[in-house]
Every structure is written in C-alpha cells, then in structure tokens.
C-alpha cells in the first residue's frame, strides 16, 4: 500500500441535515507485506484497522493512494469488478462469524458455494470431496457438513469461516480480530489453527488485533496504527524492544503479564483517541504523548513527524531525536534468576 487514504463523508448531525463532515479513517498508510509472513496490525479501536482491510478487500474503494496486489493495481476496483483469481487469492476472516454465515444453508453447502465462486474443482463430486478436506483442515468432523449454522458454537462457526477463506487457495488472508467475538476458552485453539494453516500454505497473513500478547508470539512483523497513520513498523523483536514509538511504549506497558519475575512500567494513556473527524494538528499522538516535551520548539504541535528509518529497517514516525530514542528504557524488564 502506498499513501493510502480513505475518507468517509458523513452528515453533520446524527439526525440528518447539517454540514457534511469528513471522517479521516486512513491517512497515508504506506507498508508492504511479504510472501508467507504474518504481519500483525495493532492499535486502539477506531484507529482505522478495519477500514484499510475493507479497502484492500474491495468492499470499499480508496480515496487516494495505491494498493498493489502482486502486480495489479486494485485500489479503485470494487470486489464486484475484480477477477475470480484476484478475489480467491485475497480473502478475509471476519471478526464476527455470527454475521458471515448464511443461516439457512448447511455448512457443507456454504463451503461448496465458495468453491463454486472460486471456480475450484471440475465437478460436483470433486467439490464435495474438497469440502470434506476443508473440514479436515479446520479440524471439524466431516459430519458437520450436514449441520446448520445455528447448531454450531462460535468457535466452530469461525472454523467454517476459515475453511471458506482458504477454499480458493488464498495467497493473502486478512483476519480482522478473528477471535475477539469468541469465548475466551476457544480463542487460543482457533488462533493456533489459523497459524498452522498459514504456515502450511505459506499464506501472507494480515492479522489485525488489539491483543499485544498474542501478537508477540505469532507475528513476524508488527505495524502499529494510530488515528489512521502507521506510527511504527518493524520485526516483532524491533517493536517489542526500545526504541519505541511513544504510543507503542504505552500500549506495551498495558499488556498483562502473569510472570512475577517480570516488572513493568505502567504508562497510563490519558484520554481517548481523538476524533477522526477533527484530528489534532501536527503529530496525531501529541494530545496524549509523555515524550512531547523532549522535542524542542513545539514541533509536535505543528508538524507531522517524518518516518525515521532506524537500524534494520525499523520505522518510527516521530520527531524525537536519535539520541533520545537511543536512551529509551524497556517498559518490560525480566529480573535475573
Ligand atoms: N462507513 C463508515 N462511515 C463513516 N465513518 C466510518 C465508517 N467506517 C468506519 N468509520 C470511522 O472510521 C474510523 C476508523 O474505523 P475502523 O476502521 O472501523 O477502526 P478499527 O477497526 O481500528 O476499530 C472510526 O472513526 C470510525 O468511526
Ligand atoms: S512526534 Fe512528538 S508528540 Fe508525536 S509521538 Fe513523537 S514525541 Fe510524541
Ligand atoms: Mg475494527
């Protein structure tokens, strides 16, 4: 993605009428995902994660900027005008499996329907066989083919959602908080299943999450978003160790850790994420940043920070000088035994 912007136009008051307002859901997102990697996308609710996923999928079109899928420009091609090949190679696992299955169709039928849309298999018999294999893949009993969605638990429904996403040999899968609507007891199993399939198929997985403890163990790289911007991006090792973007530092300090050998500096983020209708001038994070005073001349209040590229390609969008960044302390410390 290069300089992707997505603005929504909404009416000024909830009761209609009034001036049109513009919601700046995505502001100049630039990043790339590599073949076979898991890229985690993290950030508070409202920072624009689902918006970019929808634009990538073609469920919305971009306001400006470019999205290259392999060597095709897709930013202004809605899903209805994308080729079967493009649609099947780029798939999504949605946050809420309760909304995405057709309530009046058996599980087997829904998967076969996906295979038909993706033009998989040469006959009904072949597609039936492939459907059974997809149930195996997501570790559901083959007998579930005859079940209706209402006879499935949330975790089982999400497994069907995963089977459908991979039905056409997807090369890129976007999983938008795929387990956050599920019971805590099944979250780990569904996440592990998704990761197993990703590794097996060498799928590029964009894993959208607000849970940094999960992200830490499953992702190759991490992208941190704030108010429609990418504020930090790097390998998981780079993002979880200083120097941090000040926002990432605060997010990391809030990760719950059970281990008593671990001490953690708690940084409280004051206030909510500002409105995307009326973002602050200068740095998007300046209204909540505890490091702002380290930048001379009130620069943070006035100017959008540049993306600094540090060692190993680690990117931080911030005005802090290299010296200040280099002296940042880890927020999580593990005591020596
Ligand atoms: N269809 C829409 N119309 C207007 N505003 C929207 C629409 N979808 C999302 N937004 C707004 O865009 C911003 C980003 O939302 P979203 O991408 O859903 O964030 P996230 O997934 O990170 O929680 C929010 O301020 C949200 O209210
Ligand atoms: S640019 Fe300034 S306000 Fe923004 S994160 Fe960096 S130090 Fe904080
Ligand atoms: Mg979302």
Secondary structure blueprint with pairings:
Elements: E1 2-11, E2 20-29, E3 38-42, H1 49-57, E4 64-66, E5 68-69, E6 72-73, H2 84-89, E7 90-93, H3 97-100, H4 107-117, H5 124-137, H6 154-165, E8 172-176, H7 184-201, E9 204-209, H8 212-218, E10 221-226, E11 229-235, H9 236-240, H10 246-253, E12 262-264, H11 299-302, E13 307-309, E14 315-317, H12 322-326, E15 332-334
Helix pairs in contact: 4-5, 4-6, 6-7
Describe this structure as you would to a colleague.
This protein has 337 residues and is an alpha/beta fold. It has a single domain, classed as 3-Layer(aba) Sandwich (Rossmann fold), CATH 3.40.50.300. The protein is 31% helix and 21% strand. The strands form four sheets. Strands 7-8-9-3-10-11-14-13 form an eight-stranded mixed sheet, with helices on both faces. A three-stranded antiparallel sheet has the order 2-1-4, with helices on one face. A hairpin with an 8-residue loop joins strand 1 and strand 2. Helix 4 packs across helix 5, helix 4 packs parallel to helix 6 and helix 6 runs parallel beside helix 7. It starts with a strand and ends with a strand. 38% of the residues are buried. Bound molecules: adenosine-5'-diphosphate (ADP), iron/sulfur cluster and magnesium ion. Magnesium ion (MG) binds next to helix 1.
The proportion of residues forming helix, as a percent range, comes to 25-40%
Going across the biggest sheet, name each strand in turn: 7-8-9-3-10-11-14-13
Q: What proportion of the residues form beta strands (DSSP E)?
A: 15-25%
Largest sheet: 8 strands, mixed
Query: What would CATH call the architecture?
Result: 3-Layer(aba) Sandwich
Structural class, by secondary structure, is alpha/beta
What does the radius of gyration come to?
A: 22 Å
**Count of DSSP-assigned helices:** 12
> The CATH topology is what?
Rossmann fold
N-to-C terminal Cα separation, in Å? 45 Å
Bound molecules: adenosine-5'-diphosphate, iron/sulfur cluster, magnesium ion
**What is the overall silhouette?**
globular
Report low-confidence residues grouped into runs of 5 or more. Answer: none
How many separate structural domains? 1
How many β-strands, per DSSP? 15
CATH level 4 superfamily: P-loop containing nucleotide triphosphate hydrolases
Oligomer designation: single chain
- CATH class membership: Alpha Beta
**What's the rounded overall pLDDT mean?**
93
Order of helices and strands: EEEHEEEHEHHHHEHEHEEHHEHEEHE
């Amino acid at each position: 993605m290069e300089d992707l912007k997505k603005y929504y136009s909404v009416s000024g008051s909830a009761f209609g009428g009034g001036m049109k307002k513009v919601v700046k859901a995505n502001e100049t997102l630039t990043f790339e995902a590599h073949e076979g990697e898991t890229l985690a996308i993290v950030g508070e609710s409202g920072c624009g994660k689902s918006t970019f996923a929808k634009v990538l999928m073609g469920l919305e079109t971009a306001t400006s900027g470019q999205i290259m899928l392999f060597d095709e420009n897709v930013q202004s091609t809605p899903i209805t005008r994308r080729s079967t090949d493009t649609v099947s190679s780029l798939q999504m696992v949605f946050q809420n499996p309760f909304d995405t299955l057709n309530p009046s169709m058996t599980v087997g039928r829904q998967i076969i329907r996906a295979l038909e849309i993706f033009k998989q298999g040469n006959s009904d018999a072949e597609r039936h066989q492939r459907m059974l294999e997809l149930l195996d893949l997501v570790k559901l009993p083959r007998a579930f083919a005859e079940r209706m969605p209402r006879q499935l638990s949330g975790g089982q429904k999400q497994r069907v959602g995963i089977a459908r996403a991979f039905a056409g040999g997807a090369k890129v899968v976007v999983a938008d908080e795929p387990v956050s609507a599920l019971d805590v007891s099944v979250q780990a199993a569904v996440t592990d299943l998704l990761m197993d399939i990703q590794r097996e198929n060498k799928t590029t997985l964009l894993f959208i999450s607000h849970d940094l403890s999960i992200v830490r163990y499953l992702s190759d790289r991490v992208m941190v978003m704030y108010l429609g911007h990418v504020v930090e991006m790097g390998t998981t090792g780079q993002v979880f160790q200083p120097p941090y973007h000040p926002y990432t530092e605060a997010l990391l300090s809030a990760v719950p850790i059970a281990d008593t050998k671990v001490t953690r500096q708690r940084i409280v983020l004051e206030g909510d994420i500002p409105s995307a209708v009326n973002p602050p001038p200068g740095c998007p994070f300046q209204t909540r940043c505890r490091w702002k005073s380290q930048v001379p001349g009130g620069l943070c209040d006035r100017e959008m920070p540049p993306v600094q590229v540090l060692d190993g390609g680690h990117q931080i969008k911030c005005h802090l000088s290299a010296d200040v960044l280099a002296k940042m302390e880890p927020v999580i410390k593990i005591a020596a035994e």
